[in-house]
Amino acid sequence: MIKNSIRNKLIFWFIIISLIPLIIVGGFGFYNTKSEISNNQLEKIDFFFRNIDSKITKFFISGEKDINLIKDIIEGQLDREDFDRKNLNSIENIYYDFINNNVQYREIALIDANGYEKVKVQRYNGDINIIDENNLKLENDKDYFSEIKDLDKKKIYMWDISLKEEYNSTKTPYNPTVKIAAPIYLENNSRWFVSLDVDVKYILRDIENVRLNNNFDNFMIIDKNGHYILNSFGEKGWGANNNLNTGDNLKEDYPKLYKKILDSNEFNQVNINDNVITWYPVKLKGFDSKFTLLLQVAKRDYSKPLYKFRNVFFLQLFISLIILIFSGILVSRYLSKPILKLVKAVTNISEGSFDISVDIKTKDELQILGKEINNMAMKLKDMYANMEEKVRERTKELRKVKDNLEEIAIKDQLTGLYNRHYFNNYVDSKLKKTCSCNNQCAVFIIDVDDFKDINDNYGHNTGDEVLKVIGGILKSSSRSNDKVIRYGGDEFLVILYNGSEKVAEKYLNRIKSNIDKWNGKTDIIDDYVSVSVGYKVYDCSQDISEVINHADKMMYSNKQKKK
User: Fold this and answer.
1) CA neighbours within 13 Å on the CB side: how many for 355?
2) Which of 187, 259, 175 is nearest to 225 (CA)?
3) For 378, phi and psi rounded to 5 degrees?
4) Is 231:248 a contact under the CB 8 Å cutoff?
5) Scanning 150, 313, 337, 541, which has its CA 20 to 30 A from the CA of 410?
């Protein structure tokens, strides 16, 4: 049995320490702590207010940064000499991506110098909509437009908070919104304006979370007119049915204090009846008003830490002879060294380093704990080694499955050729770039003649074999960089690079010759298998769909001639 356990040591020091120093030092400590707790409460509230001030400021500063970013992005589109609807479409896409990636914005619009909306993207009921040009409005009768039309180039205008109207009607739940607008001055002396609607509910929700985390019940944000923007009880803030677009007024709740609160420009606190009321003004740069943060705390709650400390102090005084000051110093001197070793070992383990050795010889529970930590480190080291090997094996398996799935997605399972899905993606990503005026391509449409009769007379298995053979002949007759695609059913599509008319004719003769050779020696089918072919040389003057249609019509014409 390990002698001199920690418990025995604590009891030993407990007996040594006397009660008299506790009473003397504790008495002085209580009165000093009383003042300190009161200051801490005030500092806690001040920190709470500054935290919210910072969040509000950052929220609106981010709006200013975002609108400047949008200005910089679209200015190049607006300043083009050949500016037309295509440029507006490009701006619509930019706006759409911006709204999609920034949930705090409800609407973004581009407005010309006369107040006409040219582009508008709007978030409505969770969906993002590009407003049709027939539904765009004239904004020159709006108050904000009269404010921004003569703004300097680097100025940004921010309107007071209001409820957002969507599709010309105010929707519930109500959403407080701030409009930010900025001008764009182009080198040709034309002017445009970017308008951005910021959904204030996101910052209000963030502030509400801060309030809950700090356990403050009655917290309010008030605008310059004394209307509640946020109220902890919900029924008085934005979105309450009986406070549409105004909120309850501070004057009704604090008739003697409201003027002092609204006129104040610094942190203040007063005691009224059973409550402690604290407020803090928030002034936004570039915003034509200020907010006031107001917190009402019951005196019993405000002084709760002091009461708790007092109760704990007297409880300790009467039921315990442990004197924390002296016993803590003496015990920590004795125990700190092995405890620090344990802390260092646990820290190394948490950081993934398992090669540790805790050497503690205190002959008590700390020594047992050190041995257990050593054992735990060894087991964790073995476990992590096995886990890493399993992860590597699993990663290899998943990579192999991924490669197989990608192959299946673009290959026809019967012929092994590329499929229609591959062709559709290929047209968008590569074909239009590869084939140009200086590098023509020949596009072939090839159809097996009377393939239905082959299926009817010989069966679908034989029909499948014929498709495999034709696909193989088309592939072997082409070059390594050409594309052979099973376009659908018994129809194939071939793309020859550097495919002039001469190259196309040679390929056509080559596949017909190879099919003739196969017909002469095959025992798969008694009937003669032939194909109908149409082709068209593709260059920069045509659209790929027109080329395919032309080749398809030529193939169909050749097929009709055989009947």
Assistant:
1) 1
2) 259
3) -65, -45
4) yes
5) 541
- Which strands make up the sheet holding 531-538, listed edge to edge? 483-488, 491-497, 441-448, 531-538
Residues linked to residue 117 through DSSP beta bridges, in sequence order:
111
Q: Token pair of 277, please?
A: 């009321």
CA atoms lying within 13 Å on the CB side of residue 215: 6
Look at residue 241 in the predicted model and tell me its pLDDT: 39
Question: Closest by alpha carbon to 80, among 235, 192, 230, 205?
Answer: 192
3-state secondary structure 92-114: HHHHHHHHHHCCCEEEEEEEECC
Residues with Cβ within 8 Å of 102's Cβ and at least 6 positions away in sequence, in order, are 66
The two tokens of residue 15 are 């007996």
* CB-CB contact of 282 with 53 (8 Å): yes
- Measured CA to CA, the distance from residue 272 to residue 264 in angstroms comes to 17
**Can you read off the two tokens belonging to residue 324?**
């924390």
Q: Which helix (H) or strand (E) holds 4?
A: none
Q: How many residues are there in the chain?
A: 563
Give the number of C-alpha atoms closer than 13 A to the C-alpha of residue 81, restricted to the C-beta side.
Answer: 0
Instruction: Quote the Cα angle for 416-418-423, to 5°.
Output: 170
CB-based contacts of 251, cutoff 8 Å, min separation 6: 226, 258
Integer Cα distance of 384 and 390 in angstroms: 10
The pLDDT tens digits of the residues spanning 390-401 come to 777 787 877 887
What lies within 8 Å, CB to CB, of 374 at 6+ separation is 345, 356, 357, 358
AA identity, residue 368: I
SS3 483: strand
Mean pLDDT of the 124-129 span? 86
Token code pair at residue 46: 């001040």
Q: How far apart are CA 236 and CA 60, in angstroms?
A: 24
> What is the SS3 assignment for 28?
helix
In terms of Cα–Cα distance, which of 559, 545, 551 is closest to 504? 551
pLDDT tens digit string along 328-340? 555 555 655 676 6
Question: At 364, which helix (H) or strand (E)?
Answer: none
268, 464, 476 from 469: Cα distances, Å: 90, 9, 10
Model confidence pLDDT, tens digit, residues 194-207: 989 888 888 878 88
The Cα-based distances of 299 to 44, 210, 272, 277, 452 in angstroms read 15, 21, 9, 10, 92
Please give the Cα distance from 400 to 436 (Å, whole number): 37
Task: Label the pairing between strands 157-158 and 176-185.
Answer: antiparallel
Smallest CA-to-CA distance from 104 within 181, 194, 201 is with: 201
C-alpha span between 487 and 24 (Å, rounded): 96
Q: Are the CB atoms for 415 and 486 separated by under 8 Å? A: yes
